Amino acid sequence: MTQRMFFALWPDDALREAIQARVPDGHGGRRVARDNLHLTLAFIGAADTAYAECLSLAASTVTMEPFEFELTGLGCFRKPGVLWLGDVVPRDPLVRLAQDLNTALIPCGFKPEAREYRPHVTVARKLKAPVARAPIHPIRWSVDGFCLVVSQPGPDGVRYEVVQRYPV
């Protein structure tokens, strides 16, 4: 059996509310469910049990110090029609965590994305109209660990479930 999975930063309830409060109307897209909001560090895709166990063990070797960053902007990826909050400041600690995690997963057979890492929180999908990039009132995010998350398909769409936490 395989499951779709990814590693992410998982916001608490207050952070989820702040994120949702910054999402404008008028784009015609479908908002991401509040409980599914996250910031992806490494997208795995389909993983069988052995691969998932290897990835989980490899992720547990990643060390990090707690850090903070702010989401400072709103934008969209036109091709998939995705609205996001991002423009992370400072970028370095978050990018370093994503790179360290991706590197740790390689011995399991994981292939990191070739394109540049662009940290963001997807807040709406299937936009009917593109949204101009704009600053937002910054949202401060304190990071003291990351998670392994699986996608659970259901009658009302996909639900994300944290299956493992990796605290600092």
Task: Looking at this protein, list some descriptive labels.
globular, alpha+beta, 5-stranded antiparallel sheet, 168 residues, ligase, RNA_CPDase, EC 3.1.4.58, Cyclic Phosphodiesterase, Chain: A, 20% helix, hydrolase, Cyclic_Pdiesterase
- The H-and-E topology, N to C, reads as EHEEHEEHEEEE
Strand order of the largest sheet: 2-6-5-4-7
- Largest β sheet strand count, sense and barrel closure: 5 strands, antiparallel
Rough outline: globular
Please name the fourth-level CATH homologous superfamily: Cyclic phosphodiesterase
Class by alpha and beta content = alpha+beta
Low-confidence regions: none
CATH architecture: Alpha-Beta Complex
Q: Radius of gyration from the CA trace?
A: 16 Å
Task: Tell me the name of the CATH class.
Answer: Alpha Beta
Active site: 38 (proton donor), 120 (proton acceptor)
Motif (HXTX 2): 120-123
Function: Hydrolyzes RNA 2',3'-cyclic phosphodiester to an RNA 2'-phosphomonoester.
EC number: 3.1.4.58
Short note summarizing the structure:
This protein is of the alpha+beta class and 168 residues long.
Tell me what you see in this structure.
With 168 residues, the protein is an alpha+beta fold. The chain has a single domain, classed as Cyclic phosphodiesterase (Cyclic Phosphodiesterase, Chain: A, Alpha-Beta Complex). Helix content is 20%, strand content 45%. It is built from 3 helices and 9 strands; from the N terminus they run E-H-E-E-H-E-E-H-E-E-E-E. The protein has helices at residues 13-21, 49-59, 92-105, and strands at 2-9, 30-31, 39-48, 67-77, 82-89, 121-125, 134-143, 145-154, 157-167. A 5-stranded antiparallel beta sheet has the order 2-6-5-4-7. It has a 4-stranded antiparallel beta sheet with strand order 3-1-8-9, with helices on one face. The longest helix is centred in the middle third of the chain and has 14 residues, at 92-105. The chain starts with a strand and ends with a strand. The mean pLDDT is 95. This is RNA 2',3'-cyclic phosphodiesterase. Pfam families: 2_5_RNA_ligase2. A motif (HXTX 2) lies at residues 120-123.
